[in-house]
Amino acid sequence: MGVQRYTHPSGAVRYRARVKSQGQKVAARVFDRKADAVAWEQDQRRRLRLGEWVDPRRGRVPLSVVAADWLSSRSSVKRRTRESDQAAWRNYIQPRFGNWPIASITRLRCRPGSAVWSLADWHPLPYSRAVVRAIN
């Protein structure tokens, strides 16, 4: 672990922060300022220590993969709830967000009036319930 200074071929100075766990690199990021690199590294180490750390590569998985796992795991809910969730996924969420990487989906992007939605496409009841469950 640590922050290393290096010089970019253009002459700019950069700082590379690396975080290791059990001898393996788990995350690395480059910063313009050393203070930013140190703060990021400390935050990542704190998350590792507390068990809150999430591999940034997991955020590249498309929502459709996560949704398939989530929908199949809901066998304990009542049939009508499961059908409603599947319909909301199929009709509202999958067409818009199905191929998006999970890390790029935020609450702000899921709001009506955002760049993703037009007001004519907004179906608040079934959509909002399923999306809130999926991103919480």
Structure annotation, total helices? 4
Average residue pLDDT: 77
How many discrete domains? 2
Cα Rg: 20 Å
Q: Share of helix among residues?
A: 40-55%
Order of helices and strands: EEEHHHH
How would you describe this structure to a colleague?
This protein has 136 residues and is an alpha+beta fold. It has helices at residues 34-50, 63-72, 79-97, 124-135, and strands at residues 2-7, 13-21, 24-31. The chain has two domains: 2-53; 59-135, no CATH class. A three-stranded antiparallel β-sheet has the order 1-2-3, covered by helices on one side. Helix 2 (63-72) packs antiparallel against helix 3 and helix 3 packs across helix 4 (124-135).
Present the secondary structure layout.
Blueprint: E1 2-7, E2 13-21, E3 24-31, H1 34-50, H2 63-72, H3 79-97, H4 124-135
Outline of the structure:
With 136 residues, this protein is α+β, with helices and mostly antiparallel strands. 43% of the residues lie in helices and 17% in strands.
Provide key terms for this protein.
single chain, 2 domains, 4 helices, alpha+beta, 17% strand, elongated, 136 residues
